Fold these 4 entries.
Entry 1:
Amino acid sequence: MANITELKKTFVELFGGTEEGIQSYFAPGRVNLIGEHTDYNGGYVFPAALTFGTTMLLRKRSDNVLRFASGNFKKTADITLEGATNEKEHDWVNYPKAVLVHLSKRGYTFSGYDVYYLGEIPNGAGLSSSASVQLVTAFGFMTAEGHPVDRVELALVAQESENQFLGVKCGIMDQFTVANGKKDHAILLQCDTLKYDLIPFQAAGHKLIIGNTNKRRGLVDSEYNARRAQCEEAVGYLRQAFPNLQLLGELNAEQLKANEHLIPDETVRKRARHVIEENDRVLASVKALKESDLDAFGQLMIASHDSLRDQYEVTCKELDVMVEEALKVPGVLGSRMTGAGFGGCTVSLVKDESVDAFLQEVGRAYAERTDFKADFYVAEIGDGAKAL
Ligand code: GLA
């Protein structure tokens, strides 16, 4: 967590005035434990909020200007919300701008503020740095203005702003997790209905290790949208058997197996298989966790990665190597890519006594077999957006 005393000093250096009236907010990053590329198919996901994320300081101004600055990026911008559009030149500022524009569309009003961010989440690593910025903004501004704070609404507005204002067709998982996370709990979310359960992540004697391949997610937007389109195509074919079918997440593996001949294209068939089997895996892993069967949980993580590699085809050499090397270390129960894929991070479930060997061995082998050096974080599960 960032040092607020230091941040306040920086804030005053940047914007002038005194520390009086500065408010501080925080929103985490997230790691998805299992259930990848199921959210936009109306399926289940099982993510958790992290203890690191984005801190935002803000102080009310007497006009309607929003002055944005960040400790991570050089770009600063002064904007007003009326008529605001996505401008390339505004770079990262488009994220908070998008969410505030979409909150305004729902009738919420905002005065001007000086705003300063400090993020701890590596960018482009698939740990939802952008959802973290969106939610710290939405939560902080709504609280500061005395508007009602409904976390599910904030997540939906953030997703809508990313879809419509920024043109990224992401699902709801990231924003929902960053808004609703709870310390030591993972969230079982049904993405169609947004019904959710907070499940205690009971894994005494084990750690979750996030491994950053440091391969930035390439191609992610175009390939992501292509996968979405293939899922919709599969739904179209499967309607011959299920006329009211809207989303792949409504089917189970048996229903698909009996009807997959209706999908003529082998690639599209593989995409559908991944989504539906992954959906079943989420429920199986929650059951395993509740029964303290961490071995079974680990096996499901491995099956998830295999499917993302072979059927959904969203891994890359770096992710595959990191998972492969992780699974060679004794005491590693499971390992998989997390997030959209094409680079970014893996998550592994590791026995306490194997953590050191993991960091050393996976780090060494990964550097040997790829052009990158890995970073590792022993993850703790934290709370969703909050005032500090
Ligand atoms: C990205 C998207 C999410 C989800 C994952 C894949 O993180 O933002 O909505 O689709 O990819 O599971």
Entry 2:
Amino acid sequence: MNVLGIETSCDETGVALYGSVQGLLAHQVHSQIEVHAGFGGVVPELASRDHISKTLPLTEAVLKEAGLNRRELDGVAYTAGPGLAGALMAGAAIARSLAWSLGIPAVAVHHMEGHLLAPLLEREAPAFPFTALLVSGGHTQLVAVEGVGRYRLLGESLDDAAGEAFDKTAKLLGLPYPGGPELARLATQGDPHRFHFPRPMIDRPGLDFSFSGLKTFALNCLAAFSEEERTPQLKADIARAFEEAVADTLAIKCRRALQETGSRTLVLAGGVSANQRLRHRIDREMEKLGGRAWYARPEFCTDNGAMIAYAGYLRLMAGEQTAPGFTVRPRWPMEELGAAGV
Ligand code: KG4
Ligand code: ZN
């Protein structure tokens, strides 16, 4: 079975092909950084338009890369939520039209399920069950994972997602969009001992997070200095302390989650899981616990079509398909998903 995957939930158009025999056959991502950079963030209307113009050319490109023609496709998977309504509609409309014209099934994929399963695309992959930390621009969630679609939410952010905190803090440090990777780059130059940020909610029981206070803390650090004193070094020091606090907080909560589930297998997914300092901090924690953390390669941590093709492939293989229609769900709790094929 060859499945085309289409991801258009935010500011990246991702298209990929996944096949039963060889696994991932081809994948391409078009980033909209240039479209949104001048605005300092994602402009939903522009995102939708860009997805419309890029999805079909990328589809042609992955088919060519895989040496397949459209007639050799057996299914189409597309992100139906959560995400920006117009951006989701663009991908859904193209995916459904393609499937309809080819007479093949289509399946609506949950974006966060795509992220969650992305580490399973790697040659060496974890087995179910495991505990997952999903850290993206819109979500920070700890999830007990029994199998595809069998998810139990253990805890989540009560305000900003970890990626959102990175982006907002980057913005107030004057870094360009997209802020997370820029802040991480700047932090490598920073002194980890100059500032000490709080580790939010670690002294409270439970597995929820709160990251919105960290950007305020960063703002207060910056405000204590005059305009002339706000040197690149000062900003790097703040960035470093911020990053340490996020990594530390996430690692502490992961340890707590593993103690609760009894699992020693942790899967990290979503854009923030590309962060090197977080990976090191988590690896240290797992060493102490006698377990192991699994990650996707960095390009599959952030938004991509491969994770959608793969999640869709698993669901199509289980006999699932989504009835024709263009319904998307900009808000869509992952626990509402059923086990694959059920
Ligand atoms: O998963 P993703 O690509 O999109 C969403 O589903 O939201 O995650 C994007 C988020 C952004 O907030 C971005 O700043 C953050 O992931 N991010 C990073 C890094 N790479 C991406 N944050 C910290 N360090 C990174 N290296
Ligand atoms: Zn994402």
Entry 3:
Amino acid sequence: MLRGQMMQRPLLISDIITYAAEVYGTKEIVTSTVDGQRHRYTYRDALARISKLAHALIALGIKPGDRVATLAWNTYRHFEIYYAVSGIGAVCHTINPRLPVQQIDFIIKHAEDALLLFDEDLAGLIGTLDLAGPHAPRLVCLAGEERLPQAGLGPRAIAYEALLAGHPDGFAWPQFDENTASGLCYTSGTTGAPKGALYSHRSSVFHAMTTIVGRPSEFASDGRILPIVPMFHVNAWSLPYSAPLAGQSLIMPGPKLDGDSLFRLMDEEGVVSTWGVPTVLQGLLNTMARMKRKPNGLAEVVVGGSAASGQLIERFEDDFGVVVRHAWGMTEMSPVGSSGFLGREADHLDRSSRTKLQLSQGKRLFGVEMNIIDDDGAALPKDGAHAGELVVRGNSVIAGYFRNADASAAAFDAAGWFRTGDRARITDDGRLTIVDRVKDLIKSGGEWISSADLEEAAMRFPGVVACAAIAVPDDKWGERPALVVRMEPGVALDVEALRALMARTLAKWQLPDRIIIREALPMTATGKISKKDLRTEIVGGA
Ligand code: AMP
């Protein structure tokens, strides 16, 4: 081989913010803050404070490789932490505050966090954590000193603003190997203990670039993007990296993610694109329906994290002219694996053909290879018909779990591809359709029923706001589907009419035997319906 004669510069996260501060210096980060204010500044201002924080972290004794944890919402301060921590070669470890306390305790101990920065409204949670002992992280509250007493915090916690004060607003960002760890995020741990995905500078920068490539409208110039998806869950789908890289302003919602709060913020700030899970977007949609309009300027939503329903897609598009893009990914993939950008060729499609395309999880991103395998690990054809377990490989896919050899050994197939645990179909032009989580499939009389298909059909019934299909053990068939439904308040469910509607798209044997109404459905810490809890509740076992 003849070696190329080009310079080798590491792909580093600090280069994203120094680039954005120079080239897109006047683009904004606007935050609806935890204390109810609207904070705004530019990428240039952000870099000055990130520099101060980098100095402050070093003064606190944070060294390269140390884990620095956050329990925080989407705010400008969380953004600053992302860049300062990774920029000095330490690891930004985001923790989901909605996880059960025992899991947070486990994660902090497993990661051996040196420092924990948290939003002031989470002070109560901090009080319940097991932070005793010599190895407990030092605490920083993301507020000014004057707010510490309000948050009920004593002298143990340092105020973030006091930490920054007095430090220079310029910093010489060190150059180091691009494979250095930059971020850490534990999976929500629906089974067993949470497992850590340890990202590198290279994987994060590469991933941010590939989410931008080929998705022109999501990153259109002068775009204003609101990540509903939290920065504590897989880097808010990379938006804190990709938005500055593409010159987008970021509108940060803080802790309030109800439909009314999101609507008001989007409306006042002219948000063009917003990204989130279906449950939260459904709340926004409900507010839009009540207001009889969309937030000023909103052109598109990117939905992922769990399957978007046809009902959600069609209401956004047909009632409000807001284009929907369906994306798929995993914590282990940084996270975006596929994205449902529809080209011009989709413009002429009729509604149902367009919805069908949008219900698929889109096409794979550059740098993410996908295969489907059968139970014996043999590759299945990518013909859009065969379904098998989806395995992936790529530069932004984990090569193992952080300090967890057992989980790492179980996560890969014989060829070294990562096993996603999702069952999927792939077409010969790279379009992915997730059939179900492998463990959520229902096996009735030897035939598979997709819980996702049942849910997609049921969500079209007027008044159904959320639903989940689960397997219930059955003496004759092995398993039979049960459907748990949450209705709009005050709306009664006509069970037979729902069954009749579902029968239009499903075979009779696929229809749920039981339809159960619940006023609330159990949710996971990442905003998905917890089928594990539902199964325990309804069947009595996990
Ligand atoms: P997490 O690591 O918590 O982000 O969860 C990843 C899992 O969420 C995937 O393996 C899928 O089962 C599910 N998921 C993510 N996006 C989608 C989507 N668009 N449609 C269906 N399932 C999804």
Entry 4:
Amino acid sequence: MSDNIKRIYFDYAATTYLDKEVLSEMKPYFSETFGNANSQHWFGREAEKAVIAAREKIAAIIGAKPSEIYFTSGGTEADNWAVKGVAGAQAAVGRHIVTSAVEHHAVLDTCKQLEKKGFEVTYVQVDKEGVIDLGALKAALRDDTVLVSIMYANNEIGTVMPIREAVEIVRGQKRRIYFHTDCVQAAGALDLNVGRLDADLMSVSAHKFYGPKGVGFLYVRNGVKLEKLMIGGNQERKMRGGTLNVPHIVGLAKAFELANENRERNNEYIGGLRDRFVSRVLSEIDNVYLNGSREKRLPGNANFSFEFIEGESLLFSLDVLGIAASSGSACSSGSLDPSHVLLALGTRIELAHGSLRFSFGKDNTVDEIDYAVDALKKKVSDLRAMSPLFYQFPSEKSKV
Ligand code: PLP
């Protein structure tokens, strides 16, 4: 670090660092084994071997066939491709899509774009913990529904969705409706075995589990009809044009392997840190609420609403102290609109504006947790002391 501030990273849901072991596996593919994996010579064949091995490794981890794995530039492309690809290929069969109100914008904005092209989309509501209402999902299915897209775990509040049960409801229909699940936040923390989840399409991105940024994959069950998204080359069995990013694909597979090998240990450790953080924050700071579910939640996620405070102000105050978190309301868009996820839970608009996400990773420590809680207590108290809203509730002053 260039400055002398102690830096604490609690934004692992935004991205992780690249694991050293993953980096060393990737290194030879930048300038030694640098061939184009589609070239018909030794250099090309060596690169191709690495891609084949990566594809086989990923397929084995999720219990799929290698031919069902398509490399992409990350989660956004995988989500776009799944939704647009199925919609495009099935348009003659039906033009109705079902998704949830709390999806990532990679799915939601794709659905909005399809609405402008004549598709109808039903946004199924969630309960106050962010779990999809399975009854509403069933009721939303129509004769012309071609796709259901429900995320496995939410990026803001960490809520884990009952995907297997949702798939069963969809499978219970007379006609085949494809099921896509955005597993970008779930990957690494949850088991993505396709035999167990039974989804037709799944999106994964490497930079959420200590792999490189800008690479991921879309699992597409053999037989699913999908239109191409990226055209212009015959790569990926003629389904996705573009020269393969061999070092990143190698890194994706290695990071996925490590994440799955160490999943239980990491979850236990990270979940322990998170529980300590949550229980200290809830017991030592007044007028703070945990957003999402206490139990059905990713181990690394804690999302709070602090009453009488703007999330951004708290975010910046913590940043000054070296603590990196994420504001729920500004999210990735840089807008000041309150989070669509928190609003979907029924959170009051002021509380949605006062939210902050802390997401933990395998290198965080108990000392960091304790330092951050102490800093948080002080900053919440300072900001409330300046808040005109707080003074409208004088009885609250003594509590902080
Ligand atoms: N879906 C979810 C749930 C996410 O959390 C993210 C990234 O934060 C994405 C999709 C997009 O993934 P990527 O950053 O690889 O494009």
